[in-house]
Amino acid sequence: MAENDDVAAYLIRMMWHERKTVVAVLDQMVNPHWPYLPKRKENYENDEEEEGIEGAWSSIPDDPFDYHFYYHILDGDEAGRPPKLMALEGNKQTDNEHFDRKDKSCLHLIAKSNNKDALQHPVVRMLIKTKWQSYGHWFLSIHAAFYVIFLLLLSYSLMYGSTKLDPTLYRGAADSLRGFCEIVTLLMVVFYICEEVNQMRNERHLYFKEWMNLFDWLGLLLILCIIPLRYADSNAQWMVASLAFLFNCLRIFKFSCVTRTTGLYTKTLSKIIKRDVTRFMVVFAVVFLSFCGSLFLSFRSSKQSQQFSGFGDVLLSGFRALSEQQPIAEDYSSFNWLSILLMLAYMGTVIVILLNILIAQMSTTYTQAKRVARLEYDVDRILLLTRMERFPLLNLRVKYYKEGDWISEIKLAKELLEFSEDRHPWESVEEKLNAIRDMMRKIVKTDEAWERMKCPPVKMAELQISYKSTSVSFGCSLVTLD
Question: Is the CB of residue 139 less than 8 Å from the CB of residue 46?
Answer without folding.
Answer: no
